[in-house]
DNA sequence: CAAAAATTTTAATCTTGATTAAAATAATGC
DNA sequence: GCATTATTTTAATCAAGATTAAAATTTTTG
């Protein structure tokens, strides 16, 4: 008989665990992170984690799933609030960056997808691909409504998402930098979407 | 008595090993890659790798070092050949992307830097930071000579390098895509450097 | 071709951290 | 407060893959 209150407690603790795990994975790498490291962050014993997760593989999976959900949420908000393709892209990027550097993070870099077990791997890959597709739709819409310049949406999507997904590599949690990132990144990344004439450079 | 011919043979094999390792790490993740996997790529036995490398940690280190060297080479070429800041940035990006998708690659994503032993980790971090600094210098020069628009060079550098470093996440070696990447990425990424008026978006 | 050096394999061992089961503790419902 | 359920710990065990040493093979040299 699981009561609401207990479900909440469980979920709270599980959520703390996922954030701790993401922190560890980003800071110490996957192989450098033992379950004990994650548990220590929570003031627990490694064995306690098995109450929340079947094994380490599932911990990684849940971490990644959480990251994917946060990304999707940012995408949904951006698409919902933007009034044209460019606006949707800008807002999505803003919200996603907010997640990456804000209190809701950290989000674990998905470097170990290939070593997930097939069902988990398939699910993460599916949701990642879907995310890319959604973003490409936004870009396509922007091109059609004229708010975004002609471009290869696949490559543009890859580039922008790469820049976002890489953030945990160099951002280490100080609030000041977070402000800078939030102020600069969305504008920066959407500049390459502007419908200005091309320039062949030097 | 190590003769030139043997040094070459050793170096050739070692180099093949590093490429095989980078391939495995990118495809299967770090934890999903055993020394046996890498050895299999070379038609060797796992134990044979120990002739080239003290242990797995050093294999990762050498992989990363090689990636860093290729990046530096691209930077040097770009800086040497470009005639202004924008040109240097564009050429650097072109050369680096060329490495990422071309025959000289693959380059392993550096997801396990934190689990390297301190001396190795320090060296990789040092060379990575130096790389960032060099790129920021290029951007600064471009801003000064007017070829690049005002921007936060730190963030701009982070964004562009993130997009490049993320390439192995979605590029899986087919020649056709490689062509597309080469054709699109440099132009795409340098668009956000153009000295056009800002746009506050939607 | 014979000797020496270089490279690889075979066949163990070793290590580390994941995992498990049972016991202990804490929280909750009545 | 007691019984029940939820959560955590203690104390082992386990497994997988890294590592090693010695032997075998291949390559090079003279």
Strand content of chain A: under 5%
What characteristic shape of chain A results from the CA principal axes?
Answer: elongated
The most extensive contact between chains is: A-B, 54 and 55 residues
**Relative helix content of chain A:** 55-70%
**Oligomer kind:** homodimer
Biggest sheet features of chain A: none
| Number of E-state strands of chain A | 0
Number of helices of chain A: 8
> Helix-strand pattern of chain A, N to C?
HHHHHHHH
Determine Rg of chain A (CA atoms, Å). 19 Å
Mean pLDDT of chain A: 92
- First-residue to last-residue Cα separation of chain A: 70 Å
Q: Any low-confidence stretches of chain A, pLDDT <50, length ≥5?
A: 1-6, 198-202
- What structural category arises from helix and sheet content of chain A? mainly alpha
């Amino acid at each position: 008989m699981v009561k609401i209150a207990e479900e909440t407690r469980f979920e709270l603790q599980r959520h703390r665990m996922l954030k701790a795990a993401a922190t560890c994975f980003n800071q110490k790498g996957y192989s450098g992170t033992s379950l004990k490291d994650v548990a220590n962050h929570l003031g627990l014993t490694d064995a306690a984690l098995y109450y929340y997760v079947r094994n380490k593989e599932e911990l990684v999976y849940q971490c990644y799933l959480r990251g994917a959900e946060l990304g999707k949420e940012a995408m949904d908000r951006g698409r919902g609030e933007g009034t044209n393709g460019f606006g949707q892209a800008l807002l999505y990027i803003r919200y996603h960056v907010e997640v990456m550097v804000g209190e809701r993070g950290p989000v674990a870099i998905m470097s170990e997808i290939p070593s997930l077990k097939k069902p988990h791997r398939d699910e993460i890959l599916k949701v990642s691909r879907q995310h890319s597709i959604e973003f490409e739709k936004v870009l396509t819409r922007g091109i059609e409504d004229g708010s975004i310049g002609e471009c290869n949406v696949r490559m543009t999507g890859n580039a922008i998402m790469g820049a976002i997904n890489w953030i945990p590599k160099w951002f280490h949690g100080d609030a000041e930098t977070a402000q800078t990132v939030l102020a600069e990144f969305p504008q920066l990344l959407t500049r390459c979407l502007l419908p200005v004439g091309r320039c062949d450079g030097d």
